[in-house]
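For reproducibility, we list the full input for the adenosine monophosphate complex.
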Amino acid sequence: MSETLFSKIAAGEIPAEILYEDEEIVAFRDVSPQAPVHVLVIPRKPIPTLNAVQPEDAHLIGRLLLVAAQIAAREGIAESGYRTVINCNAGAGQTVFHLHLHVLGGRPLNWPPG
Ligand code: AMP
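The corresponding predicted structure, in tokenized form, follows.
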């Protein structure tokens, strides 16, 4: 898979406000926030969509959620509530084809989202 915008952010080639990083995962603020807290959690591994996740990625995908919960706690939205979203493919609004988990909170979030 060719380099994506997010793999360039993970490599430090494009600036972003990084909130967390380790050898597998990077989290940074969304440049166009849809809520007071809007963070993207990505694997360094360039998986294009949720459809491309393989059984051997199970641990990594679980860790994305654990990092999301850790960020929610740090950002002070764990108790008020937050939403995690993975948009899969264009019909669901995916625009960057490097798997990412949105963490949104800090305001009331309607359900269903529409
Ligand atoms: P999606 O629509 O699910 O593919 O989400 C892509 C997200 O990436 C959008 O919420 C964008 O605002 C965000 N985004 C695009 N470019 C950047 C960037 N350079 N830094 C941080 N977030 C970005």
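DSSP finds two helices and five strands in the chain. The pocket of adenosine monophosphate is lined by residues 5, 14, 16, 28, 30-32, 40, 87, 93-96 (CB under 6 Å). Both points were considered when choosing residues for closer inspection.
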